[in-house]
Write a structure and sequence with these properties.
Two copies of one chain form a homodimer. Chain A is an alpha/beta fold. The first copy, chain A, is built from eight helices and 29 strands. Chains A, B: InterPro entries: Apiosidase-like_cat_dom, DUF5060, DUF5605, GH, Ig-like_fold.
Chain lengths: ~500, ~500
Amino acid sequence: MTQQLKNVFETEQWGRFEFRCKGPEMMGNPFTEVRFAARFESGERMVEVDGFYDGDGEYCVRFMPDTLGKWTFETVSNRTELQGISGRLNCVEPAQGNHGPVRVDNTYHFAYADGTPYQPFGTTCYVWNHQGEHLEEQTLASLRQSPFNKIRMCVFPKHYDYNLNEPELYPFEGSLDDGWNFNTFEPAFWQHLEQRIQQLQDLGIEADLILFHPYDRWGFSRMSPETDDLYLQYAIARLSSFRNIWWSLANEFDLMREKSMSDWDRFFQIIQDRDAYQHLRSIHNWHNPEIHYRSNEHWYDHNKPWVTHVSIQHHDLNFVPEWREQYGKPIVVDECRYEGNLNHGWGNITAEAMTECFWKGMAFGGYVTHGETYVHPDNIIWWSHGGELHGQSPDRIQFLRNLMKDMPQLGATPINFKWDAAAGGIDQQFYLVYFGQSRPAFRTFNLPEGKRFEISLIDTWNMTVSQLDGEFEGDCRVDLPAVPYLALIFKKIESI
Amino acid sequence: MTQQLKNVFETEQWGRFEFRCKGPEMMGNPFTEVRFAARFESGERMVEVDGFYDGDGEYCVRFMPDTLGKWTFETVSNRTELQGISGRLNCVEPAQGNHGPVRVDNTYHFAYADGTPYQPFGTTCYVWNHQGEHLEEQTLASLRQSPFNKIRMCVFPKHYDYNLNEPELYPFEGSLDDGWNFNTFEPAFWQHLEQRIQQLQDLGIEADLILFHPYDRWGFSRMSPETDDLYLQYAIARLSSFRNIWWSLANEFDLMREKSMSDWDRFFQIIQDRDAYQHLRSIHNWHNPEIHYRSNEHWYDHNKPWVTHVSIQHHDLNFVPEWREQYGKPIVVDECRYEGNLNHGWGNITAEAMTECFWKGMAFGGYVTHGETYVHPDNIIWWSHGGELHGQSPDRIQFLRNLMKDMPQLGATPINFKWDAAAGGIDQQFYLVYFGQSRPAFRTFNLPEGKRFEISLIDTWNMTVSQLDGEFEGDCRVDLPAVPYLALIFKKIESI
């Protein structure tokens, strides 16, 4: 994407510009002792971004321009050889399919930077990027055929039931046996991670990148604060120019007993300070405080200003309206149990239940993330390793995604659709009502006065849509087939 | 049951002895101005019970002897004609099937007075007794074929959706149009109610009698405190000698805005004071305080000493262990939504879901009540009117009841059967583990050291029991068919 001509470059808007140069011969540690950054200017704007040492004597700085036109840049360093190198960057129209990074839109929703709506249909493959070439390519092929446009994945490898293999690469120099040199990153690890993030980007998939997690035998969950911070800065310098990056501070942060709330606050602040593009930031929990209606002591306060959206693990999607109200931010339920038949309680729900989570969460104006955990002869389980999808929910999630593409962003609705239904909409215009396992034989509605509606009946499991005969207004009755997993879509009929 | 010979009578233990006599010709109100009671003595025991005016100049006092042998009695009145009449009562062995009234047993459970275990398998037909002869007899015939041994039913008629008919009888003299004479009871109403309670007793069914409820167009939910108290005293005088009576102070007490917590306390105390037999007492809620993890302001404090067991409306049976711990009393979830296809959210769950509620609640050491709400051409719906059962859950509830007959009373177990399963048992001896909609392909268990167990696999939906091959001990793995609605029963193998 980048063409060089006497330090004159061209990059598409929200593309990734990369400027590399050889650094000085040195005895010290190029990761910690060499500062390398660059200032990019366009008109009155100046954006400074950190560069990083990429091994083999090479330093690199990356930049994702967000506005069209001419940019100039100049490197900043504490080494003469790397200081004051300047150049020009022409930012051109984005290529087809490049809509920029995803931002919060309309308080509870998301859109790409160019305004295109983005509705997250996430999946979970925690360490698919640690499984070696064959399986990783298979995962990408599966994702290409899937409904998913977001993936939760970890920087660090994972140690847990079904996750006992060693990865090929580690983020730091060293080994499990000999210990890690936490001041020396392993560029090959990061280059590999970047390759995978880029491949996701090519598939239109956002990488919800998990920076810390508790499932660890290598010590990456128990690094010193100085190492944590260095690691974050290096990750930001390398990765923030990928437009499809989201920062998930942790998976199940509250299981990382060594870290305090103030550590998490500090991590958020480091990212907020150093990510020039302000990619989305969230943190993901293990505890459910309200299941025993006790205190919120283990619950991160998503109201803090550096949290862009609420990433929640919870099995009960009925809380989505409450969380919306409580936080005034997009709600993404990034784990609500997984479709499968695993021995573990969080990994053996039916495809029907997984699909129900999606419909319920979405109807309430939130978003939901998929995962799959079927027992496999070689212990290759989508939730962690990627590989192939075996379940029945992805087709239904694709069906929902297709439908939602044509829906407005859903908000809370003043119409009382009764508590057994999940419902959202745009008042007086559009309503989505999902009945889940409830199966009424009929329903009465009290539609807004003076408006006529057409109603479509959706069988969310059998993936059919049928428009009901007639028009509906005021107090009206709708007969239903009295089977589970139905939804209704109400659309106002525009007067001609 | 009662034979007279010069005021010498015979009644079986926990049977109902009734002594009637004509009262004085009077101008005043025999319901309020005539005191009529009787003292029953046996050895050093003396039990005083209130009698009541039954119309046609006749006064009646009833007594349920709880110990075998000779009793004497003497009436007490403020009228000469009714004062000091004495007699003898011989209390003989109870007939087959008469186990006495149900009591709390072993903190969390129930047993009949003779020690026979009683496990409530309740159903709900709120006003079946207000539907006229034909339907009421049909209800009794349905109950006879059903798994149910407890029924929730109201004294007062019900006004609500699907409940708009007038009853044939009212508890007070008067009419809806002309108003009620709250000082004058209608004996025919009460005689009819007693007939139905007796018929339930003949079927081995406990009458969980709801004394107040909010669904009212007649004014019975908004009577004065004096009328409430008079009504309670009259009901106790008439009904407490029925051994199958349970006092449910209210259905959804918290919807009766006219009544305060102190009213409910007073009602409990009146019953505690006047019911000589101390039948079970509870109160039933509408609100679920913890669904929005807020305060308990609408939740009756079931710790109060006059509450014998906790009667709860709640859709989530996962709270049963918490309620057991909180109250230290039997937990009966007397409404967790109903099997059916009604337009209302509380009345359209599947038979699978209804059955799941039973298994889950019971596995956690609680008890659960059934209800059924299928749309019907004549609006005859089991939940309120009785009639016929149409659903698929009663057969499964019967299957569970048959199994539980051979189980010990279930308590909390220290074994961690994982949070997706409901489990209870007797430590080191017996465990019931229910997986509900979770469908693991296998499970590992950590059974108590040095004990061997046999395991039965239950398909709770298809109603099959199959014993697994072999014996199980210590850390062991159990392969499962990976379908929903399975349970396992672990029984310690006794050494020979």
